[in-house]
């Protein structure tokens, strides 16, 4: 779902898709926020960081790419996210194998974010074309 709220490679906007893929990530953030609100330890599962936290972290960090302007409306998600980033090793892991682009995307203007989305969409289409020719 994340990223599907961005325009396609041609920069086209399809109203149904935009509506669907902007509202679905928001729903998922609400579900996660409600879960974390009742978590006694502040993690997805149990009393420590697990693979569930690690797997969900990048998705949460890409909130702008998911069509959200901020995660402030999800205070438990925001607290969980920044608590994990403050843990030893998370910054290093977040930037492996290369720099994490999602936090930077969250600070981009809508126009800059659109350019990234079009670029990534074009990259995917080019790769699919090369695969079809192989």
UniProtKB/TrEMBL annotation:
InterPro entries: Glutathione-S-Trfase_C-like (IPR010987), Glutathione-S-Trfase_C_sf (IPR036282), GST_C (IPR004046). It comes from the Eukaryota. Residues 1-103 form the GST C-terminal domain. Coiled coil: none annotated. PANTHER family: GLUTATHIONE S-TRANSFERASE GSTA, GLUTATHIONE S-TRANSFERASE-RELATED. This is Disulfide-bond oxidoreductase YghU. It comes from Colletotrichum sidae.
């Amino acid at each position: 779902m994340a990223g599907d709220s961005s325009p396609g490679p041609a920069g086209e906007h399809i109203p149904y898709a935009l509506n669907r893929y902007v509202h679905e990530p928001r729903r998922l953030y609400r579900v996660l926020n409600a879960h974390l609100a009742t978590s006694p330890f502040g993690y997805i599962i149990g009393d420590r960081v697990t693979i569930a936290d690690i797997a969900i972290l990048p998705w949460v960090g890409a909130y702008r790419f998911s069509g959200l302007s901020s995660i402030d409306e999800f205070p438990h998600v925001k607290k969980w996210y920044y608590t994990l980033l403050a843990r030893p090793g998370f910054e290093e892991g977040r930037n492996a194998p290369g720099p994490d682009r999602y936090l930077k995307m969250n600070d981009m203007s809508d126009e800059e974010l659109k350019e990234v989305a079009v670029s990534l969409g074009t990259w995917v289409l080019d790769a699919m074309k090369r695969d079809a020719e192989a």
